[in-house]
Amino acid sequence: MGMDAANNKFSGCIGFIGAGVMGTALIKSFIGIGISSKQICISEKMAEKSKQLSSSLGVNEKSITEIANECDLIFLAVKPQDLADSLIELSKTLPAKTLLISIAAGKTTSFIEQQIGRDNPVIRVMPNTPAQVGKGVSAISAGKFATAADLAIATQLLSASGLVVEIAESQQDAVTALSGSGPAYFFKFVEEMIKSGVALGLSEEIATKLAVGTIAGSAAMLQESGLDAATLRENVTSPNGTTAAALKEFEKADIAQIVNNAMTAAKKRAQELA
Asked: Can you list the domains of the chain with their CATH numbers?
């Protein structure tokens, strides 16, 4: 198992236990960097979904046992509540050298290591849905038996879907609250901007174009200008102007506390899923 130094590609078999939204996004990103679909095996309990992916992407449909026997690296991409049962099945025939990469929210590397019952390297990842368009963010943490080489392989693969940062596992629940769930906060805000635009007299089509274009341009400014969010906000806020009037309403509603409460709730839920 490993990266092929000649062409910078993963040379082994990659298994996916679960192929939902995030699993499918990762599979597509791997194929996009030149990994053959024939190197990828999936075990997906939704038979229709499994057949659709096999047909459209050319990946191999396999059982969990077959993935354990044949794959060098396995992504655990099931829902957190389904992980224990999947690990019990996987552990029956899993070789000790196989690298496991989990994207199951809230589930710790120690939980996976205990369920497997052997010294397999485990890496925990919190990705997010913009991975579907190559703009994702993935935070990775190494388990007890994972090596620097294991982290390098995970980083190389996940980089196909966006930014990868390495963090201490103790920070994973905070990452879940910020970047893991964060896209939904963003989408909710845009949804409400569009609704308000329509209420103020714009057509839904125009309101949508204006909201999406504004958000996309603002994100680009934040990423490319070298300035922080507070400075950019101040730069666009003229004293007693229209922006100041709008921001005053946010302050009256205590947007800082709203955001903090929301992220704290997300972190708490991630801890409950552990």
From this structure: 3-171 (3.40.50.720), 182-273 (1.10.3730.10)
